[in-house]
Write a structure and sequence with these properties.
By secondary structure, the chain is α/β, with parallel strands linked by helices. Helix 3 (121-131) links the parallel strand 4 (109-112) and strand 5 (137-140). Strands 1-3-2-4-5-10-9-8-6-7 form a ten-stranded mixed sheet. It is globular, with a radius of gyration of 21 Å. The protein has helices at residues 2-25, 58-73, 121-131, 170-176, 288-301; strands at 32-35, 46-50, 76-80, 109-112, 137-140, 192-196, 213-214, 229-236, 256-265, 271-277. It has a single domain, classed as Rossmann fold (3-Layer(aba) Sandwich), CATH 3.40.50.
């Protein structure tokens, strides 16, 4: 009996240690969130989604996209946030701290939706290595001006600044295809209708995509290289409803590129497939077909073009009630762990 009791206690102790180790492995307190891939074509591939913008609620959009990609399509998705280091809460106003960028070392694709970030060199190193790795990149909305160096002008990564002159337009223009130019549509007055470019209407990224509309305005584009493939143009509408009429005159003649693909060859001679859209606020992703476009882009960029469904499942996993865009409208006191379910 004594031996049985000791064995039972020892077994309980071992189970307790294993449970503790498991809790560490699953990162219960990590300042990022991981959605493990379920069954699907993307199983075995890892997507890292990088948020961090003050206005367009990437901290809401990226977990939603991550869960869709993981649960419906099998991709492992790691979502990173701008974090307040003092209390571990998600703080889009903090431009200098996005923990977890080392996750890019095992990533098959990067999705970025950041704005005016200035990160420590030890963190930017991971982004720079990925950018030059030949692996695919998808930029959303403010990623065209993802980085801004106002403090550390001597950084090894200052060229990523959206205003850089030596590497014109920095990361946005050089990698994604454009830097910040202007609000072509009137901000918070004129919304955006996506118009498919007939030349590329059969592109795999547009499979099952018919109806894209969002309340954010069309961004100005002027530096996009001729070899870029513009899949969709942004039509400026008179108002903030999907039924509003297109604005008459030069704003829509010609229309600005809204979604495009291009390539980027890094300093190691490796070439990446790049997709960019100047849509991408959380509220824009109320559009089912904008979600579908992103899912298709992930399949296409990660070598799964032949696996793109006729109409990819993009139903949100759990509630998705996006906050309307605006500065300071993020949910306070929220930690990444709160988004794991």
């Amino acid at each position: 009996m004594h031996n049985m009791t000791m064995a039972t206690k020892l077994g309980g102790l071992i189970l307790g240690v294993l449970a503790f180790c498991a809790s560490i492995a699953t990162g219960a307190d990590d300042p990022w969130v991981v959605y493990e891939g379920k069954e699907g074509p993307g199983n075995g591939k890892h997507i890292v989604l990088i948020g961090g913008d003050e206005e367009y609620r990437s901290e809401e959009a990226l977990p939603m996209l991550g869960k869709i990609l993981a649960v419906h399509h099998g991709f492992k998705c790691t979502v990173l946030f701008s974090i307040n280091p003092a209390d571990g809460t998600i703080d889009p106003m903090n431009q200098n701290y996005i923990p977890g960028l080392h996750q890019l070392q095992t990533a098959d694709m990067m999705i970025i939706a950041s704005r005016f970030r200035e990160l420590p060199d030890e963190d930017m190193k991971h982004i720079d290595e990925f950018v030059n790795s030949g692996k695919p990149i998808l930029g959303l909305r403010t990623a065209t001006h993802a980085f801004s160096y106002s403090k550390n002008k001597d950084s090894a990564y200052v060229k990523y600044d959206w205003r850089n002159k030596d590497w014109p337009g920095g990361f946005g223009q050089q990698v994604l295809g454009e830097t910040w130019i202007n609000h072509h549509g009137k901000h918070n007055v004129e919304s955006t209708r996506g118009v498919i470019n007939e030349e590329f209407k059969n592109h795999p990224i547009l499979k099952g995509v018919k109806d894209v509309w969002g309340p954010t305005d069309v961004y100005g584009i002027k530096n996009l290289v001729p070899e870029a493939k513009v899949l969709m143009f942004g039509q400026v509408l008179e108002g903030m409803n999907p039924t509003d009429k297109p604005v008459e005159g030069p704003k829509n003649d010609p229309m600005m590129p809204l979604v495009w693909t291009k390539t980027f060859t890094g300093n190691q001679g490796k070439t990446s497939q790049v997709i960019c859209t100047t849509m991408g606020a959380a509220i824009d992703f109320a559009s089912e077909d904008l979600r579908r476009l992103v899912v298709n882009a992930v399949y296409w960029a990660t070598g799964l073009e032949d696996k793109i469904p006729e109409r990819a499942c993009v139903a949100p996993v759990g509630p998705f009630e996006p906050t309307y865009f605006g500065f300071g409208k993020f949910t306070k006191d929220l930690k990444p762990a709160d988004l794991k379910r």
